[in-house]
Design a protein that fits this description.
The complex is a heterodimer of chains A (641) and B (81). Chain A is of the alpha+beta class. Chain A has 25 helices and 17 strands. At the A-B interface, helix 8 and helix 9 of A face helix 1, strand 4, strand 5 and helix 2 of B. The complex binds iron/sulfur cluster (SF4) and zinc ion.
Chain lengths: 641, 81
């Protein structure tokens, strides 16, 4: 049975490994993946735990449907307390590791302590080995995966790993698998580095055990048709996430030069169709028919001939618009380097663009940068800084810290130029003309984050009737909804709804691109209820599934509150309110987020969540979600595990 | 909860997807450029778009024609539109 997978508790200090079953009750409450990880995070860390200390946990989990006959059921979640923000650490990755981990017999790993010397874990046949990794320390994210395969003489092994950035405790180091799949955000790679954990490898031979295989297969065919017939999927198949660039940069919704501008003019070289010219094919994750990931060889310069995958929209922003570079080669090279070292591309580009603005303003000088000229658009400098950050060399050592730590080290009013929420940098989109998207990043549980609750379809100008069909399921909603992305009305509900949707799919282990993220006609709760039933035998209604997603999200809020977060943290930096957009089409030009209206949106958002005016979930809400045994001392939500 | 009636309307909606068109980013009018066109000017707001085709039937906006973009925007902003 696919529900028979276990949780393993691994103590790297003592070498002790313990496994426990996952109860049905826990499944019904949290499903799996991110939701159950949040339960484990809350339960197995103490308030104020040092993110890089041995008492923090490194969580790894497969979603409830991972490895089953559900389309795009590829996702693995990783977590811990974030070294970047001090709040929820949580990231999600595709590829093939999650299915392999389940085939090896495990759904969740809770890794704590610190190994004396570098180690890696090997999961197979319901067992976990802690193996020496001293010879792997210092390797990049590709070599380490290859070396593990060679060492264990098995080409089918899938690994999660860190590169040099994680070893060097870059605060936004990430977890990697395959060539470019990244659990990118919140610095989980630094947690692994602090534990001397280089990789987790898995090879599984156990049957997943589908509840109703024939029916599941037939139903999945319908889902595949629904997904692949969507325009957005066809576009993704050809262009990947860079397709978003064409629309957003043309409109004036791309954060440029560290938020001084909202558009990279004449940047035709890094347009999606231009990037596509360099692609030699596309790759996909487990059980996905979309295949959104480009494959390319770098065509010129010192890295000529190097193979890599991507880039994503984030790399166009990070190494294009943000740093004022219009060269495709720079985007492709930097995309390669962050993959190689194992760093979050978004945070890397944000830190570099912030440093460039500080340089422009005279806050950083040539002396501070070791002679590097940080002028906008200096391609060589941008590439050099990626190396320096990964290795923590020179100015790179400061930029490898979290935004707020780096600002404290530089001083001189440098914090004013950070573009972040809760200490995590914003995506390279400009949300000043789009209140829904601005609210989404301001309130997101892991810091500024489009993948936590972005109602991206708000940009599509959909008729109200269509919006209502989407946003009043499976929970009724008859409040306002408007097609105009510049409105403030109704947006708090959309943000909350998307938060629960993304939380839910992260619990299930299904890719967000197969949901109402970029496409309005994608599968949602009713389809997931069917997929869960046919694949696992678990009977859940669409509303119960929605509530499970909500429960996980609420637990993230409770964790953050436990770690000191207040309403004050649900905010945007002043530039969103004080500096109107200077570029773009008339619909977006001269826009900013009105402070009073923003405050009303936050109030409404709290009210929809049934949180009080300080953003604290009410007792009634916690009772309704069966989370009411939590208290301020951080005691456990239950004694289920 | 989504009823089967609503569910079928979701599927109906999916079937009724428009092909061969995209919305103008400036005025949101739905535009249907001739097949294979690489440029198209919105008859309503005059912005000229560079067009790409992600399937032989389905166009998308690749980017603006930058030369006229800024002037058009400034004219519109002056006109208070
Ligand atoms: S859409 Fe892209 S990211 Fe999602 S599962 Fe498919 S290949 Fe992976
Ligand atoms: Zn128009």
């Amino acid at each position: 049975m696919s529900l028979s997978r276990k949780i393993a508790f691994v103590d790297l200090t003592t070498g002790k490994i313990e496994t426990k079953p996952i109860s049905k009750e826990l499944r019904r409450k949290f499903l799996g993946g991110r939701g159950l990880d949040m339960y484990l995070l809350y339960k197995h860390t103490k308030p104020g735990v040092d993110p890089l200390g041995p008492d923090n946990v490194a969580l790894i989990s497969a979603g409830l449907l991972v490895g089953t006959l559900a389309s795009a059921s590829s996702r693995t979640h990783v977590g811990g307390k974030s070294p970047l923000t001090g709040y929820v650490g949580s990231a999600n990755v595709g590829g093939f590791f999650g299915p392999e981990m389940r085939l090896a017999g495990f759904d969740h790993l809770v890794i704590r302590g610190k190994a004396e010397k570098p180690v890696y874990l090997y999961l197979h046949d319901d067992e976990i080995e802690i193996r020496d990794a001293e010879h792997l320390w210092g390797t990049d994210t590709r070599d380490v995966q290859d070396l593990i395969r060679q060492e264990l003489a098995d080409d089918d092994i899938q690994s999660l790993c860190i590169g040099q950035a994680g070893e060097n405790l870059v605060k936004y180091a990430c977890i990697r698998t395959s060539i470019k799949n990244a659990a990118g955000r919140t610095g989980i790679g630094a947690i692994w580095g602090s534990k001397n954990l280089k990789a987790v490898a898995a090879k599984g031979m156990r049957d997943i055990g589908i509840a109703q295989p024939k029916e599941a297969l037939a139903y999945n065919k319908e889902i595949i048709n629904q997904v692949t017939s969507a325009k957005v999927s066809k576009t993704m198949q050809k262009l990947g996430t860079p397709f978003i660039w064409g629309v957003t940069n043309s409109t004036g919704l791309v954060r440029t030069r560290n938020f001084q501008l909202n558009q990279l003019v004449n940047a035709d070289d890094i347009e999606p169709e231009s990037i596509e010219e360099d692609l030699v094919g596309t790759a996909g994750c487990f059980a996905c028919q979309v295949h959104c990931r480009g494959k390319y060889f770098i065509k010129e310069g010192p890295y000529k001939g190097t193979y890599d995958e991507g880039p994503e929209y984030t790399s166009q922003g990070a190494f294009g618009a943000e740093v004022g570079c219009t060269s495709k080669n720079t985007v492709l090279v930097c995309n390669h380097l962050v993959n190689y070292y194992g760093m979050d591309n978004l945070e890397t580009g944000s830190m570099i663009s912030w440093a460039m603005e500080l340089f422009e303003k005279g806050i950083l000088t040539l002396e501070d940068t070791g002679g590097l000229d940080l002028t906008w658009g200096n391609d060589e400098t941008v590439i050099e800084l990626v190396h320096k950050i990964a290795k923590r060399e020179g100015i790179g050592d400061i930029l490898a810290d979290s935004p707020l730590e780096a600002a404290a080290r530089i001083g001189k009013d440098s914090e004013r130029y950070l573009v972040h929420v809760k200490g995590m940098s914003n995506l390279h989109s400009d949300e000043r003309p789009t209140p829904a998207l601005a609210l989404n990043i301001a309130v997101s549980s892991r810091g500024s984050d489009h993948l936590r609750g972005r109602p991206a379809i708000d940009l599509y100008h959909l008729p109200e009737k269509v919006l209502r069909q989407i946003y009043s399921n499976p929970i009724p909603y008859d409040g306002p909804l408007t097609s105009d992305y510049r409105d403030y009305e109704g947006k708090p509900w959309q943000v909350m709804w998307q938060e629960h949707l993304y939380s839910t799919v992260d619990c299930l282990g299904i890719c967000k691109y197969h949901t109402v993220f970029l496409g309005p006609n994608m599968p949602a709760y009713e389809e997931w209820a069917n997929l869960i039933r046919l694949n696992t035998g678990l009977e859940l209604t669409p509303e119960e599934i929605y509530r499970a997603g909500e429960r996980g999200y609420t637990l993230e809020r409770l964790f953050n509150i436990r770690e000191g977060m207040t309403r004050e943290d649900d905010k945007l930096v002043d530039r969103y309110h004080d500096e109107p957009t200077p570029l773009g089409l008339p619909v977006v030009r001269g826009r900013f987020i009105d402070r009073d209206k923003f405050k009303i949106m936050v109030d409404e958002y709290y009210a929809h969540h049934e949180w009080d005016e300080n953003g604290v979930p009410t007792r009634e809400k916690l009772e309704a979600l069966s989370l009411n045994t939590l208290d301020k001392s951080g005691s456990e939500p239950s004694n289920l595990v | 909860m989504t009823t089967s009636k609503e569910r079928s309307s979701l599927q109906e909606r999916a079937k009724q997807r428009t092909t061969g068109a995209f919305r103008c980013l400036s005025c949101f009018k739905r535009l249907s450029p001739p097949k294979g066109a690489t440029h198209y000017t919105c008859p309503q707001c005059n912005y000229e778009w560079r067009v790409a085709w992600f399937t032989p039937e389905e166009p998308r906006i690749r980017g603006p024609v930058w030369d006229s973009y800024e002037q058009l925007t400034q004219d519109r902003m002056k006109g208070g539109k």
